[in-house]
């Protein structure tokens, strides 16, 4: 009987843990101030565009559906006939404090063929053509300007043929279409591979586009002569020469410094924290908070592009390790017990970072992040 009670207690604890993690995941996507915005976009098969847009940080939800036609509440069968004038679309709900409308468009254009107005890869017909349904004049102007810049960049093999269409109605697709890539992983993987979408995108953006993404905005800025810092990992000999014994232990040997006995745990100055090895911008004082742990803690990174996470099994229970992308430095761990708006606690080692005061950011090449202190 004792064994049965023990088993029941364990199952209850496990279920509670799962529910807590689900709630934490929901909190991670919750808008930072309750404000959300909507983008309605078309890029061929909505299974694929839904999958790709949900990867963008700041996106709260993506729903597959239909827009652009006259028939109310059309079915997939009606739309796929090509006779209703609808287009397969996704409706993206996002937090404008975390991601801009242009960044949402950037993510879209880097995952579709915006030059084909007669279909999308293996899916043929005008109901699969690329389009941006603008909800207001501001969205229209942003989309027009951005698409002109993309055309001028010449990254795609043909001129853009993506339509700008005034938004009217959106009709949600059938339930079996929602999150198809999650519910039917094998079928989705087979379809996506056979469609030719990823082969095309690899040819345009390179086969490392997922591991080392470069946004269209970055490409445009660079083509216009805008200087951006590039980050890389120095040689092992240089790293060993430049770092202190503690910095090397933490960043290269995945060590942990002592709590309440490190440089930045109680630092209250305005500025940003960069990787001690590569110089990558990691965290801002605007997201730093007193966690009571004795290590510098943050609710989110400056730019998730510069941090990577992986599961760490060095203790009895799994943890999520945080490393810098280009420097590959061990930084610390992230936990789901932080405050709003993210519910996260990025618990970092001071020895893995260098602090750049706000007054020094411009001269040290981090002026682009001064906007963080305008609020």
Structural write-up:
It is a single chain. The chain has 375 residues and is of the alpha+beta class. It has two domains: 37-221, Peptide Methionine Sulfoxide Reductase, Chain A, CATH 3.30.1060.10; 236-373, Peptide methionine sulfoxide reductase (Metal Binding Protein, Guanine Nucleotide Exchange Factor, Chain A, Beta Complex), CATH 2.170.150. The chain has helices at residues 2-29, 46-53, 76-80, 101-109, 137-153, 180-183, 185-195, 197-205, 216-223, 236-242, 245-252, and strands at 37-42, 59-67, 87-94, 119-120, 123-124, 131-134, 163-166, 170-172, 271-275, 281-284, 288-289, 297-298, 307-312, 319-324, 330-335, 345-348, 353-357. It has a six-stranded mixed beta sheet, covered by helices on one side. It has a six-stranded antiparallel beta sheet with strand order 11-12-16-15-14-13. It has a three-stranded antiparallel beta sheet with strand order 10-9-17, with no helix packed on it. The protein is elongated, with a radius of gyration of 23 Å. The model is unreliable at 1-28 (pLDDT under 50).
């Amino acid at each position: 009987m004792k064994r049965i009670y023990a088993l029941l207690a364990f199952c209850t604890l496990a279920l509670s843990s799962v529910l807590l993690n689900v709630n934490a995941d929901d909190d991670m996507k919750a808008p930072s101030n309750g404000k959300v915005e909507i983008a309605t976009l078309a890029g061929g098969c909505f299974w694929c565009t839904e999958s790709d847009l949900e990867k963008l940080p700041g996106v709260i939800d993506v729903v597959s559906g239909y827009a652009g036609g006259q028939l109310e509440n059309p079915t997939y069968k009606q739309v796929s006939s090509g006779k209703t004038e609808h287009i397969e679309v996704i409706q993206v709900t996002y937090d404008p404090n975390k991601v801009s409308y242009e960044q949402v468009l950037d993510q879209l254009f880097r995952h579709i063929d915006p030059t084909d107005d007669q279909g999308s890869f293996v899916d043929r017909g005008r109901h699969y053509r690329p389009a941006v349904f603008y909800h207001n004049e501001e969205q229209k102007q942003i989309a027009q300007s951005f698409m002109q810049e993309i055309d001028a960049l010449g990254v795609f093999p043909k001129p853009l043929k993506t339509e700008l269409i005034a938004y009217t109605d959106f009709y949600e697709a059938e339930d079996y279409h929602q999150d198809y890539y999650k519910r039917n992983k094998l079928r989705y993987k087979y379809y996506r591979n056979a469609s030719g979408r990823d082969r095309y995108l690899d040819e345009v953006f390179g086969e490392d586009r997922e591991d080392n993404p470069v946004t269209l905005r970055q490409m445009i800025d660079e083509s216009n002569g805008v200087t951006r810092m590039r980050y890389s990992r120095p040689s092992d000999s240089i790293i060993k020469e430049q770092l202190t014994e503690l910095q090397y232990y933490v960043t290269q040997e995945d060590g942990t410094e002592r709590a309440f006995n490190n440089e930045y745990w109680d630092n209250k100055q305005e500025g940003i924290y960069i990787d001690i090895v590569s110089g990558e911008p990691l965290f801002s004082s605007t997201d730093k908070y007193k966690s009571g742990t004795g290590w510098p803690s943050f609710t989110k990174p400056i730019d998730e592009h510069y941090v990577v996470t992986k599961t760490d099994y060095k203790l009895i229970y799994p943890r999520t390790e945080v490393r810098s992308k280009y420097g590959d430095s061990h930084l610390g761990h992230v936990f789901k017990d932080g405050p709003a708006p993210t519910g996260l606690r990025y618990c970092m080692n001071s020895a893995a970072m260098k602090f750049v005061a706000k007054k020094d950011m411009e001269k040290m090449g981090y002026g682009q992040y001064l906007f963080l202190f305008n609020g």
